[in-house]
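[step 3/7] fold_predict: job queued, chain A
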Amino acid sequence: MGSLDCTAQLKHLPRLWCDPQVCTGSEVPLQAAQIHYLKRVLRSRPMTELLILNGQGRIWRALWQDTQAQLIESLDLPSNESPQPLWLGVGVLKGEAMDWLIQKATELGVTTLQPLLTAYTQLVPSPQKQARWLQIAREACEQCERLYLPQILPAIPLTQASSPYSLNFIAVARPLETGPAPGLQTRLAALAPQPLGLWIGPEGGWSPTEQVQGCVPISLGPRVLRAETAVCSALTLVNAWLVP
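[step 4/7] structure written:
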């Protein structure tokens, strides 16, 4: 059952993320929230099969045993990661918008997400908020069947942020002094797929004095989008470019 032909048989099993440091033996402790999810949400009972993933590409078939999972076998399932790494720098949003953004960015294949503190940022996240963002990314990985957990970095000022890639696009909501910025789809059409950095501002966008060196300005259309909508729009175009 560890071969690729088992994929169809396993797709209906619940997936739970566990810390890589505890996925070293034959038994993996489950968190209280995971047990609640199995019992109350899925209405499962102990001795039910499930899948355990460590967020680093490993996945196991397991048997739920009350407060822990018994690992049965390591599986070799095909990866559904983006063919090129995607770095996303985004201004921290207020309320639940940032939670939603992190969930969707994870589903859309972001490799690294860097929250940014900008001139118009209205929230400086607490350690508890950043821990919540990581939990949201874990749950999104379980739902969309990713084997690799994206890196959710601590929020830092825009002036301290940098993408590890040479190709970077920054979304602008309004025309530049030199005229309208080319659309992202137009920019991508002239390039071969490669690692990419995307920069998207918070509510209110970028201030007139904010600049990111080495970024190519792009437009996401004639309408001014909410920040979370802009992220989904940009990542959808990038995914279509990476997997035509």
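[step 5/7] annotate
The first strand starts at residue 15 and ends at 17.
The domain at 4-75 is CATH 2.40.240.20 (Ribosomal Protein L25; Chain P).
exit 0
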